[in-house]
Amino acid sequence: MSANGGGRAGGLPALLTRMPRPRLTALGGGLLAVVVMLCAGLFASLLLDDSMTFYGVCFVVLCAACALGVRVAEALTAPVAVPIAFTFGLIPITGEDGVGAWFVALASTLAVNAGWLYGGTLVAVAIVLVRRGLYAAGRRRSRSAARTR
Questions:
Q1: Alpha-carbon separation of residue 127 from 33, 51, 66, 76, 87 (angstroms)
Q2: 24-54: pLDDT as tens digits
Q3: What whole-number distance in Å separates Cα of residue 64 and Cα of residue 85?
Q4: pTM for the whole thing?
Q5: How many alpha carbons fall within 13 Å on the CB side of residue 101?
Q6: Measured between alpha carbons, how far is 11 from 131 in angstroms, rounded to an integer?
Q7: Going by C-beta distance under 8 Å and a sequence separation of 6 or more, which residues neighbour residue 96?
Q8: Of 96, 104, 145, 148, which has the fewest CB atoms closer than 10 Å, so is most exposed?
């Protein structure tokens, strides 16, 4: 039996103690989001006939993962990076001939799928606010505990 309670069957606290802490920087989280959304857009374009449902679900999951994976000190960058990644991921989906036609298709796709964009961004904002609140509460507790010693 391990010291962290790993011997308990199905213990959630044991699972949480084994999970690694978030290690992504703001730049790393943004780059990861762009790469993942480009891959999702390419996959949706090539294999799923430009399925925006698949793309949107991937985006919402990515928003949650990005908000949870970025370091707490830089977590406020996640809600900024994910909409940029959403736009970059649309490049394979809006494959049009000519720059003007491509920009029109991109703007149309963004307008039609604004629900996915706003929903995923709100998921990231909610997670980041909770994480920052828990972080601030923990710091306050440690400061007050240091003062009482």
A1: 16, 27, 10, 10, 21
A2: 778 888 888 899 988 988 888 888 777 788 8
A3: 13
A4: 0.73
A5: 5
A6: 22
A7: 102, 104, 105
A8: 148
